[in-house]
Amino acid sequence: MPTDTAPSRMKLVVTGGAGYVGSVCTARLIEAGHEVTVVDDLSTGHADAVPEGARFVEGDAAEVAGTLLGQGFDGVLHFAAKSLVGESMHDPGLYWHGNVVTSLRLLDAMRTHGTPRLVFSSTAATYGEPETSPITETAPTRPTNTYGATKLAIDHAITSYARAHGLAAVSLRYFNVAGAYGRYGERHTTETHLIPLVLQVATGDRAQVQIFGDDYPTDDGTAVRDYIHVTDLADAHLLALEHARSGEHDIYNLGNGTGFSVRQVIEACREATGHPIPAVVAPRRAGDPAVLVASSERARTALGWKPERTDLVGIVADAWQFTQDRKDANPA
Ligand code: UFG
């Protein structure tokens, strides 16, 4: 039965624990003394990214995790998802099935087995083009892409499952996650994110970086985002697990509250890497809002969360260290 008192050592299923954010969270959960079973189908994750100390079961988040839950778990952290905005627009079925159907099946399995707690990876993309900045959790949710629409649909489902069935649930709406934690970092086969792409220029794997639009209504004309260190994000998951309350679904934005433009990010990468990083201006990328900055006041107040790694050069430096370590370990 759902409970309001979180045990200090929890038995947890982490779906997507072989991915970027999932692996960092798993590492932090293990350090905090929790017992973690990672379920990942390795469609975008990597088996060698599953942290030591975690049990690893390869397979589909709903199918495998759903069966495992019968063994009795204190909670699920559900990271496994399709998360490429561009791909979600040309292959929506992949996102409605991969995100919404899978999550519904997982929710049903949690209900069947009486798993009391859920922490879900939601996204800033649920808000769409913001009317005001910074974005609070009460802002209208009008996603401009299928990815955001699927995450919002799951958020709605979680709300009703929590109310009807007593689930203790928290959705964390990530803004732009960056940085690395030791050997756990961002390594997508299809890379679309700004910082890893810029770092590929610094490693010599890419000649230059493209700036998607310099005619936005921002100080330097390039788009502004809120970059949050992946370890700060992970810490919020641990706090969310402790604070989840039966019958409630709480939603928190996670960002630093400071926006950096694409040009500022490239400059920070130049500083962190010592590489000149050539950049060229290209057309805007479809669907990109001009400015996305989080208000994380709710997370700070309700969870006692405080991001510690807010310096952009420091965030990039951690991603750069991770990139270099991988390059040394796997020379081309
Ligand atoms: N950008 C470039 N050049 C590149 C890549 C990106 O100029 O080569 C720009 C983008 O246009 C955007 C900014 O850099 O203005 C950041 O782009 P990312 O792709 O790194 O991140 P997004 O802000 O597009 O996406 C992030 C998350 C998504 C989430 C979204 C919320 O990665 O999962 O925020 O809107 F949906």
What's the gist of this structure?
The chain has 332 residues and is of the alpha/beta class. Helices cover 39% and strands 18% of the residues. It has a seven-stranded parallel β-sheet with strand order 3-2-1-4-5-6-11, sandwiched between helices. Strands 12-9-14 form a three-stranded mixed β-sheet. A two-stranded parallel sheet has the order 7-10.
Write the layout of secondary structure elements.
Blueprint: E1 11-15, H1 20-31, E2 35-40, E3 55-58, H2 61-68, E4 75-78, H3 85-90, H4 92-113, E5 117-123, H5 146-165, E6 168-174, E7 176-178, H6 194-202, E8 209-212, E9 224-225, E10 227-229, H7 230-243, E11 249-254, E12 260-261, H8 262-273, E13 279-282, E14 291-292, H9 297-303, H10 312-329
The structure holds uridine-5'-diphosphate-4-deoxy-4-fluoro-alpha-D-galactose.
Uridine-5'-diphosphate-4-deoxy-4-fluoro-alpha-D-galactose binds at residues 83, 85, 123-125, 147-148, 176, 192-194, 197, 209-212, 223, 225, 262, 285, 288, 292.
How does this structure look, described?
- With 332 residues, this protein is an alpha/beta fold.
- The chain contains ten helices and 14 strands.
- It has helices at 20-31, 61-68, 85-90, 92-113, 146-165, 194-202, 230-243, 262-273, 297-303, 312-329; strands at 11-15, 35-40, 55-58, 75-78, 117-123, 168-174, 176-178, 209-212, 224-225, 227-229, 249-254, 260-261, 279-282, 291-292.
- Strands 3-2-1-4-5-6-11 form a seven-stranded parallel β-sheet, with helices on both faces.
- The structure holds uridine-5'-diphosphate-4-deoxy-4-fluoro-alpha-D-galactose.
- Uridine-5'-diphosphate-4-deoxy-4-fluoro-alpha-D-galactose (UFG) is lined by residues 83, 85, 123-125, 147-148, 176, 192-194, 197, 209-212, 223, 225, 262, 285, 288, 292.
- Residues 83, 85, 123-125, 147-148, 176, 192-194, 197, 209-212, 223, 225, 262, 285, 288, 292 line the site of uridine-5'-diphosphate-4-deoxy-4-fluoro-alpha-D-galactose.
